[in-house]
Amino acid sequence: MVSADSEPRPPARTRLDPEARRTQLVELGLEMLSTRPLNQLAIEDIAAAAGISRGLLFHYFPSKRDFHEAVVRAAAADMLARTAPDPGLPFIEQLRAGVEAFVDYVSENPAAYVSLVRGAAGSDPALQAIFDQTRTEICHRVFERIGAEKPPTRVRLAVRGWVAFSEEAVIDWISEPASDLDRTDLIDLLDAALVTLVAMAAAPPTSG
Length: 208
Description:
Blueprint: H1 18-33, H2 43-50, H3 54-60, H4 64-82, H5 91-108, H6 110-120, H7 125-145, H8 153-175, H9 183-202
């Protein structure tokens, strides 16, 4: 029986194996990244949410930079998973469904996506590599959908340019919502831009 003047014991710390703990910490970082930019992802907040000490977190990640890199990598993987094409759809519908999923993902996870894109623009080569891998995967998906796994240079440049355009367009749209451009309008714009660019790039070049 507990006496009246006894203080309640703190909850017991949950013991996890190293891989499970790393996964938990990255998932907590990913969750927090949905509401704040990467540079505001505090180690103290992550450790407190996990119920561990700040020092123990560094047992799993050598530095804050390593932890941030792991979180950004997880954000990129999550975005790619959420926007994966449905092979059961006709290829034109697959392209549009991919655009819809991309717009919805960025709308729901603005801080995470901006951290991925803007982080790549900084001086951190690890974040740049994650961003480049992500963009390359999106391009390959488009190439597969249009039946050009090894596209000619004109088509490759057009698709990579479209990906960059889409990134900036969606970030601008969520940053400054405009009453004259709703979600469907934005998707129509991106979808039409892709179809038009690929058609122009695939056409034989005209002589000057």
